[in-house]
Amino acid sequence: MNPWGWRVAWLLAAAVPLAFLTLFFAWPAASLVLRGFHDGDGWTLSGFQTVFASPRTWRAVGFTLTSATASTLLCLLLGLPGAYLLYRTRFAGQGALRALVSVPFVLPTVVVGVAFGALLREDGLLGWAGLSGTPAAILGAMVFFNYSVVVRTVGSMWARLDPRLEQAAATLGASPLRVLLGVTLPALAPAIVSAASLVFLFSASSYGIVMVLGQGSYSSIETEIWFLTTQLLDLRSAAALSITQLVIVTLALWLSSAAQTRTTASLRLQPDSATSRRFDRRRDWAPMALTLGVTVVLLVAPLGNLLWLSLHRGDRLTLANYSQLASDGAMGTTLWAAGRTSLVTALAATGMAVALGMLVSLVASRRPRSTSARRGLAALESLFLLPLGVSAVTVGFGYLITLNRPPLDLRSSLVLIPIAQAVVALPLIVRILLPVLRAIDPRQLEAASTLGSGPLRVLLRIELPHLWRGLGLATGFAFATSLGEFGATSFLARPDNPTLPVLIFRLFGRPGSETYGMALAASVLLAGLAGITMAAAERLRPQEVTTW
């Protein structure tokens, strides 16, 4: 194939995912913006005036910003010592502790909410603290969910910092504290800013956590969108609030990008094994104590308590919660029906997200010579990362107001849920596969071309085998994300055919010990399935993929 033929082929490869993103993300988002500013007769700000005249809206906005900021600060405070311990030192059991710390991030948010709700109830392990239904419960769940983001994002870079920088400062007489503040933390600033922006983003969009733990007393922007849409049927006010959330998220991402640009320096990075050292009891006891304390109190206790309570009904140790959920069913469905729906939609979403993510990664990893072409590929990559900064609730709401009439009337179609889940999972696939392709040594590609290999042969023999190395982790992340997706699915799932996260939320919101026990049992099963999926995927993680 001649050069022009290859250019056309790559343009077609980019056109397919672009068409998907335009149809199922850009169009709903644009329609949402239009609905917020247009009432059918003309342009207006009435939706904004109505929604922001309500004290309830300001409470939701204030709670969202306050809880996300507090969660970010706590995650940084607790996560930096953990990043140092798990990625800069070596000790027995380090791998197991790393895996344990990573588990909460892959759990569905509704399961995290149920786990903390069970922990803080009167009969829970921490029921004596009286924190059930308080902002502290929501904040604790957010830290539980996002702690590993800081540990892994900062730790992955910390593990590769050139140790000679710190050694030189110590040789010149700097104390350990001065080395940390004057050398190490400035070098880690890009990773810290990146982790902080991700934690703020995930905390501000913790829809499932606030829905379960807020108990109607506390609401975020996302839960308020749900309330306006499903309870008041006020779509214009909901659209105005969705636009507000988009502005907040965009501003946060822009500020973090600007901060990273100012703080990123030319750093000499080393392989992980070249920078870590043996654990020193006298020097490292404080990070070890703090990390173990966080692991036990914030990570192990909620999950252990969830499992323990799911095996009880009253004061008896029993499997009744599991057996009743499987046989009698609840909320008009059974565990098997909800599980089958979740698995089918997650598999379909994973297939779409992985296929589209592979195309995007292959196109974005090209190495054109012209500056304009490189800028175009950078813009393409940014476009496909946009869904990472937009709430799944906004995506689901956008579908309700766009895909409700011919030629795309998908309101009653089951295909709409996996499409929404694929949109949510697509940025993760790109973030995983693209670094693997960019890690290919350009000299290897040039050598193959020099020896007579055409572009197709280079693609088949070099690039696709590298891509395959990251496919296991990408597939696992996409499947776990789709399996536990609750934001968009809560808008789109039919009452008679819910997914497991939707079923858990409905059970948790109903009175009675039996329905509560079944909610705990379903949460344990969903958490176990997500954890097993990610454990298997992590074993296939290539070295190039060190962060989320």
Automatic annotation (TrEMBL):
The chain crosses the membrane at residues 60-87, 99-120, 126-150, 187-215, 235-255, 285-309, 343-364, 376-401, 413-434, 471-493, 516-537. Residues 61-256, 339-537 form the ABC transmembrane type-1 domain. The keyword Transmembrane applies. Gene3D superfamilies: MetI-like (1.10.3720.10). The keyword Cell membrane applies. It comes from the Bacteria. Keywords: Cell inner membrane, Cell membrane, Membrane, Transmembrane, Transmembrane helix, Transport. It is a multi-pass membrane protein. GO terms for biological process: transmembrane transport. CDD domains: TM_PBP2 (cd06261). Its main location: membrane. GO terms for cellular component: plasma membrane. It holds the Pfam family BPD_transp_1. It is found in: Cell inner membrane; Cell membrane. Belongs to the binding-protein-dependent transport system permease family. This is Thiamine transport system permease protein. It comes from Tessaracoccus bendigoensis DSM 12906. The lineage of its organism: Bacteria, Bacillati, Actinomycetota, Actinomycetes, Propionibacteriales.
